[in-house]
Amino acid sequence: MRLEWDVHMVVDYPEDDIEDTCRYVRENGWDDAAIVSMITDTVMGFDEQDYCNWDHDQTMAVVDEIKRRVGSIQLSMFDGEDF
Fold this sequence. Notes:
The protein is mainly α. The chain has a domain at 15-68. It has four helices and no strands. The longest helix has 15 residues, at 56-70.
């Protein structure tokens, strides 16, 4: 017998951790590995149920929010020249 159901989860990702990651990106540029590592460090502090149910989709949602907040970080590559 196979039973299957979806469990609705809600996790409040800490605002301070998002801001810390955004600050890191502004100061150091975009680094996928470092950003995912920072997110993973935060998630490891969640309670067991939230930690165990966290997956790639949730990580990418946090990454997308960081991208939204830092905006056009790519423009910093142009060191002030007119383009």
